[in-house]
Every structure is written in C-alpha cells, then in structure tokens.
Design a protein that fits this description.
With about 280 residues, this protein is α/β, with parallel strands linked by helices. It has helices at about 60-75, 90-95, 115-120, 125, 145-150, 175-180, 200-210, 250-260, 265-270; strands at about 5-10, 20-25, 25-30, 35-40, 45-50, 55-60, 80-85, 105-110, 135-140, 155-160, 185-190, 215-220, 230-240. A hairpin with a 4-residue loop joins strand 3 (about 25-30) and strand 4.
C-alpha cells in the first residue's frame, strides 16, 4: 500500500483498464518541444520514464525489451557492420548494439534532443555511457525524413512510441518502403509493435504494411512486466526468410563468439520467440 505522502502514476493507455505505480520520488516532470516527460522512482521498478502519460521504460526490466529488439536481428543476420536506430532516446538499444564488436557504426535518429539529454541525466544506467562511444552518430531530427535518404544499413531498429504523437510517422507505408530501400541485401528491420492482446489493431496494421514491402514479414515476442496486457510483439521484416530459421546450434555459436552477457536473451529464447500464440500475427 502507498503511504500517506506517496502519490500514484496511473496509465490509462487502453480503454477500460488502467495500471498504477507508486511514485516514491518525483525526479522530473515537464514538456519538451515534442512530448510530456515524467521520471520518477518506484519501489518495484526502480526509475521509471513515462511519455504523454504512457509508461516507456523502467530500470527493473528494460533489459528484456532492449536485448530482444537488438540481439535477435543482429545475431540472426550474423555479419552486421552498420546499424540504424530510429528513436531509442533512452540509449538502451544503442548500448546493446555496441556490445557487438563487429558493429562498426551505429546511427541513432531521435526527434527529441531534449529527451535524450533528460535520459542521460536522470536515467544514466540505461545507456551506461553508450553515447560517448566513437562508433555512435547521433542525429537529432525527423526519422522519416532521414530514412528517405538512408542507405546501406544491415539492421534497422525502430524503437518508437505507439503510433500517436511524434512516433506516428514511423508506422506509415512510405516509411517502411524507405526502410526496405535503406537495407543491404539480406538486411533486417525490427519494430516495436505493442501488446497484441490489447493493441491488436496496431500489430495488424504493422504486419500488413511490412508484408506489402518485404518478402518475409512476421513478428516475435517477449514478456515484459512493465507493459500491461501480456506478451509484447516486435515486428520483423527481411527479404531473406532464412534469417529467422537458424537452428539453436548456429545461434549459440554466434552468441558465444560475440561474448555477450545477457539477462533475458538466450539462443533458445531467440528461437522460441518466433513461436506465436494464435491471436498474434502469422
């Protein structure tokens, strides 16, 4: 129970349900040019970040989301040199990309530069110094505009908010077509695609638009406690269907060669994440 001096953060992202987290200490609450940002401490999840009233990331379970959105495409591809991140202002995806010694360059395009600085100041454990790495190119600007001219990336990771506000443009058919053009042969695009049990329309929309552009489009999943409503979906698209069909031994060899230390991702989890419940995409 909350004490008499504690307040609650209530997320009402989905009609008819809500989730609440105790605010044991408010760290920051204000608006950038693009969105409302709230940072607070919670006794269960540690430091918590919310954008426009929706939970985005917590210190306690961020590793699940970031490991699965990064290591799955990079290890499936097997020879990644250049990565493009759309969004990802907290730096968690960036940090995991840099764990791969073979990655020579990571370009991160984030529309909200003030948000990046807030995350570096108030939640530095998530990026863990990644922004200072010499391999990083940080671009503050419009992701869709950048993507129109982007070329020769092996993996593109879209770490966006839901398709509202500044993140909406990263779900358009034109954006996915530009992603396909920006990938090298055999490249992979992965996207944040919501919680299908409560956001089935979002996943259906993403899959239809990816399928119209890529030869192979599906999704994979992970269970992340912060995101209410069950397993979360990640969109997957490539013109090489074989990239999501590696056996465990091949994935294990790549994982061991990379020298990764992970808390959620394993080669077995990688394989299993593409086994989907009936209500997920096919």
């Amino acid at each position: 129970m909350a004490g008499p001096d504690q307040s609650w953060f209530t997320e009402t992202l989905h009609a008819g349900v809500a989730q609440r987290l105790v605010i044991s200490r408010l760290i920051h609450h204000g608006r950038t040019e693009w969105q409302e940002v709230m940072v607070f401490d919670n006794p269960v999840f540690g430091r918590v970040v919310a954008l426009d009233g929706a939970l985005q990331v917590t210190e306690r379970d961020e590793f699940i989301y970031h490991e699965m959105l990064t290591h799955v495409p990079i290890l499936a591809h097997g020879r990644v040199r250049r990565v493009l991140i759309m969004g990802g202002g907290d730096g968690g995806i960036l940090r995991r990309c840099l764990m791969h010694a073979g990655v020579a360059e990571v370009t991160m395009v984030e529309i909200d530069g003030e948000f990046v600085e807030l995350m570096r100041r108030h939640v530095p454990s998530i990026s863990a110094g990644a922004f200072e790495d010499a391999r990083v190119r940080l671009v503050i600007g419009d992701g869709a505009e950048f993507m129109r001219m982007a070329r020769d990336f092996d993996v593109i990771i879209v770490d966006s908010t839901d398709p509202t506000g500044p993140g909406a443009v990263l779900f358009s058919p034109e954006f996915y077509a530009d992603c396909q053009k920006a990938l090298t042969p055999g490249g992979v695009l992965v996207t944040q695609s919501g919680v299908p049990f409560l956001q089935d329309e979002e996943l259906t929309l993403v899959q239809a638009r990816l399928g119209a552009v890529f030869a192979d489009a599906t999704c994979y999943q992970a269970s992340i406690p912060t995101y209410y409503g069950g397993a979360m979906a990640f969109g997957w698209a490539s013109d090489d269907a074989g990239l999501r069909r590696h056996d465990r031994a091949a994935l294990a060899a790549r994982y061991e060669a990379a020298g990764l230390v992970t808390r959620y991702y394993t080669p077995e989890i990688h394989q299993a994440s593409f086994a989907l419940p009936g209500y997920f995409c096919r």
